[in-house]
């Protein structure tokens, strides 16, 4: 156990035992550092960990306090999924389209949305930078950066990889229309109709749609809500099905919020390398961590160029700009060709504005504020679920992102809950849309990335009443 983990464990035990009460102030970082004989950085990391667990809250200029809901949060899901082991054709699109249509209405409370509130982003500053960039735009840039993307933006992305300890050359990066295009291009680069693809269970519905659209088959692998895909089950699936790709989210997976530990990511990369199966890594939530440092992607452990790391600015900076990228490793040329043959290029003004924003600084300051806001909202949201939902409801406690996965007690019909909630002006994401096979009928994914206010509290109370009405003991 690392020093910060031991410190966090000791404080956690004091909170859960009642020795520290809700509202109590934790000792200052300086005092704890001196009393425990550890560095201030270790104390900060321990406090960040406790904040991510919903046990403490930071108050500006005041320090850290035991959360008002500490010790009273709903229990966590504690078992991995159990999908069938067969490769399956998919028919997901209609279900997903129905959900997406409901999240586009401003009069609906967007608990079912896959995006955080646009009010959390520096859109005014980005707009000014876009204006500046358009006025200075080199006419030849539309030709020079046609498919790989804006050279300045790719350099900035390469620098951010370097900060995280990874050497990713700008020439390896292809800028795309959001991360979803990057993920689709990767899939097209390595798989053909009829091939099989390894996925998590439950899985991001965008991956299910992409697999369906390209005529591929999905192999769902058991996945735990805390640490992700079961690697022993993954190896059995690799041996049996010989898939052409593995598509998964190692950091704050959608919908579970699971975070794969670094050691497990390393083992995953080694396992796929033995079978020479490329990994399509969806890392759109990686910057939204609540701990002391950004969790490494699986790409950090890749020495053979088999990992195609995909991300975007849509979830953390500029949701409407639709700018993503892929660091495609040995598949860079194939991905670039797929891009050239499909959408050709990505919006030049949007790329230029983001490059300018990264060059001028301020991105990390924005991310710190965003992460703090999301961590605080997660605690408020979980406490409201505890108060309004049936006893026995289990809720994940992600260490980042803005999505919660709920397991409802007894027999429940998530699709019926979705329909009843929509009639009350509330969207939710029902569990069945995250699986290529029947399952997760008693599960919901809820978005806590929109500002917590009286409207959100009332909507969650209404949703709790709906769930009560649809749960059979």
Describe this protein's structure.
The chain contains 16 helices and 18 strands. The chain has helices spanning 3-17, 29-36, 40-52, 93-102, 123-136, 141-144, 151-163, 178-190, 205-213, 231-241, 262-275, 332-341, 348-360, 363-388, 414-423, 454-470, and strands at residues 56-59, 63-66, 109-110, 173-176, 196-201, 217-224, 228-229, 245-248, 279-282, 307-312, 324-327, 394-395, 403-407, 411-412, 426-427, 429-430, 443-447, 471-472. The strands form five sheets. An eight-stranded mixed sheet has the order 4-11-10-9-8-5-6-7, with helices on both faces. The radius of gyration is 22 Å and the shape is globular. The model has no long low-confidence stretch (mean pLDDT 91).
Question: In short, what is this structure?
Answer:
With 473 residues, this protein is an alpha/beta fold.
Layout: helices, strands, pairs:
Blueprint: H1 3-17, H2 29-36, H3 40-52, E1 56-59, E2 63-66, H4 93-102, E3 109-110, H5 123-136, H6 141-144, H7 151-163, E4 173-176, H8 178-190, E5 196-201, H9 205-213, E6 217-224, E7 228-229, H10 231-241, E8 245-248, H11 262-275, E9 279-282, E10 307-312, E11 324-327, H12 332-341, H13 348-360, H14 363-388, E12 394-395, E13 403-407, E14 411-412, H15 414-423, E15 426-427, E16 429-430, E17 443-447, H16 454-470, E18 471-472
């Amino acid at each position: 156990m690392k020093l910060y983990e031991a410190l966090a464990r000791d404080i956690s035990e004091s909170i859960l035992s009642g020795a520290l009460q809700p509202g109590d102030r934790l000792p200052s970082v300086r005092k704890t550092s001196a009393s425990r004989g550890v560095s201030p950085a270790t104390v900060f990391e321990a406090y960040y960990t406790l904040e991510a667990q919903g046990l403490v809250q930071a108050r500006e200029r005041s320090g850290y306090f035991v959360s008002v809901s500490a010790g009273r949060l709903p229990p966590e899901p504690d078992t991995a999924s159990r999908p069938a082991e067969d490769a399956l054709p998919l028919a997901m699109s209609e279900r997903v389209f129905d959900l997406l249509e409901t999240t586009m209405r401003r009069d609906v409370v967007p608990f079912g949305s896959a995006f955080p509130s646009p009010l959390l982003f520096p859109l005014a500053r980005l707009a000014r930078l876009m204006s500046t960039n358009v006025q200075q735009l080199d006419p030849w840039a539309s030709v020079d950066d046609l498919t790989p993307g804006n050279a300045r933006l790719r350099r900035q992305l390469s620098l951010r990889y370097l900060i995280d300890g990874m050497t990713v050359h700008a020439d390896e990066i292809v800028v795309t229309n959001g991360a979803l295009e990057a993920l689709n291009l990767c899939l097209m680069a390595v798989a053909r109709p009829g091939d099989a693809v390894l996925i998590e269970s439950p899985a991001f519905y965008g991956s299910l749609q992409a697999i369906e659209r390209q005529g591929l088959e999905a192999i769902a692998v058991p996945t735990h809500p805390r640490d992700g895909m079961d690697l022993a089950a993954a190896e059995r699936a690799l041996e049996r099905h010989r898939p052409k790709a593995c598509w998964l989210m190692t950091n704050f997976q959608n919908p579970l919020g699971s975070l794969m530990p670094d050691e497990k990511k390393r083992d995953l990369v080694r396992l796929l390398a033995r079978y020479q199966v490329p990994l399509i890594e969806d890392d759109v939530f990686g910057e939204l961590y609540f701990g002391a440092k950004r969790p490494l992607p699986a790409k950090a452990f890749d020495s053979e160029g088999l990992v195609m790391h995909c991300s975007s600015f849509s979830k953390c900076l500029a949701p409407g700009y639709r700018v993503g990228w892929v660091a495609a490793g040995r598949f860079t040329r194939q991905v670039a060709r797929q891009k050239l043959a499909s959408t050709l290029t990505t919006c030049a003004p949007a790329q230029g504005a983001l490059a300018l924003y990264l060059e001028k600084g301020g991105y990390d300051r924005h991310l710190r504020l965003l992460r703090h806001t999301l961590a605080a909202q997660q605690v408020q949201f979980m406490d409201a679920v505890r108060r309004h939902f049936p006893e026995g409801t289990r809720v994940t406690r992600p260490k980042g992102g803005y999505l919660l996965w709920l397991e409802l007690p007894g027999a429940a019909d998530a699709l019926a809950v979705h329909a009843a909630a929509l009639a009350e002006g509330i969207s939710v994401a029902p569990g069945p849309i995250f699986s290529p096979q029947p399952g997760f009928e008693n599960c919901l994914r809820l978005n806590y990335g929109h500002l917590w206010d009286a409207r959100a509290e009332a909507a969650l109370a209404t949703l709790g009443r709906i769930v009560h009405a649809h749960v059979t003991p």
